[in-house]
Design goal:
Order of helices and strands: HHHEEEHEHEEHEHEH
Number of helices: 8
Number of strands: 8
Structural class: alpha/beta
Length: 344
């Protein structure tokens, strides 16, 4: 082969390699761009600055939340399979609270080793789109022997308070408030997880659940630097202060996450962050929204990020004095606005 032929062949090879490299680079940049706009880019901007004084309505919410969490974490305490009397006492309290708000309670009971466990549901039938259903739920059981003030007394109390505030409303879509049993180990991510039993029932009845909000461990906040931790790669993106409420979903629920946080940011002056990413990342699927994902529904979790911030998570120190009731009241007031938008 002559020198000229070798030179032409080398140029052709270099050109082809450059084209392939360019195509790979474009694909890589495309994937990065898709991930950013789908998973991380949220509408609006997280609030930063001094918090306003609570309104009269927010003070009422604060008092109700504190009373309900004290009932669950102080008077009742640990509530699960090994504390069977207590989990039944919690279910009775929840049923009574719903009834006092004017609801008829639907009890979904199922058996584990000859013991009965119960999901509790109340419903407001939609007046225009009754077949489209929005579910707001939280689990009332606790892990091990913990009193479970934050995990998940905060979520249970938030569901109860939202139910009270919607009791006299007439939404376009059907609205359900559900308190689930058996989210914690040993039933977490198993067929006996209360929310999975419930979500399977929705699917078997061909119900059109258009959105599910899981209220999970919501009451602890910190202004200190490095108080917030994350699994990789979220630690590269989100703030180090644990002073925000998080809206968390999988990629299939990206539209719901963005819709919810957009409404929250427009109407509530409180820090917020959102992500809609792969459910396999630690923490992303760690609550009852996961059960609805398994049935193909869009669902998100509203949380203070639990073990990534709350050092008392799953310990005996998860007590009612750790809750910031003022900030939790602000979050619940914001959730009321989100649910209002979702059902109308």
């Amino acid at each position: 082969m002559t020198g000229k032929k070798r030179k032409r062949k080398f140029k052709a090879f270099s050109k082809a390699a450059s084209i392939r490299l360019g195509v790979l680079l474009l694909i890589f940049l495309g994937v990065i761009g898709w991930l950013w706009f789908t998973c991380f880019q949220m509408p609006g901007k997280s609030y930063s600055g001094e918090l306003l004084s609570l309104t009269t309505e927010e003070k009422i919410i604060q008092d109700n939340l504190q009373q309900d969490i004290n009932k669950l974490a102080v008077e009742i305490g640990a509530r699960n399979y090994n504390n069977y009397q207590n989990i039944n006492a919690a279910a009775d309290f929840i049923e009574s609270s719903f009834q006092k708000a004017g609801y008829k309670v639907n009890k979904q009971e199922y058996q584990i080793n000859n013991k009965a466990f119960t999901n509790l549901e109340v419903e407001i039938k939609g007046i225009k789109k009754p077949d489209e259903i929005v579910v707001v739920g939280g689990h009332y059981d606790t892990a091990f022997s913990t009193p479970g003030a934050n995990d998940n007394g905060s979520g249970v109390a938030a569901v109860l308070e939202l139910a009270r505030r919607f009791a006299d409303k007439k939404p376009s879509r059907t609205l359900r408030f559900v308190e689930f049993t058996n989210e914690e180990p040993p039933y977490f991510w198993t067929e006996n997880m209360g929310s999975l039993v419930y979500a399977k029932g929705c699917n078997q009845r061909n119900e059109n659940v258009v959105a599910m909000l899981s209220l999970e461990t919501m009451g602890y906040f910190s202004e200190e630097e490095e108080s917030q931790k994350y699994p990789f790669p979220l630690n590269l993106i989100y703030p180090s202060q644990g002073n925000f409420i998080a809206f968390v979903g999988n990629i299939n629920s990206s539209k719901l996450v963005k819709y919810a946080i957009d409404n929250f940011r427009k109407q509530v002056k409180f820090p917020s962050e959102g992500v809609a990413i792969f459910g396999q990342i630690p923490g992303i699927g760690w609550s009852d929204h996961w059960s609805f994902w398994q049935q193909g529904y869009q669902a998100l979790m509203v949380t203070d990020t639990a073990p990534f911030r709350y050092t008392h998570y799953h310990t005996l120190e998860d007590t009612s004095d750790k809750i910031d009731y003022e900030k939790l009241a602000r979050v619940v007031a914001g959730l009321e606005k989100i649910v209002e938008e979702l059902v109308n």
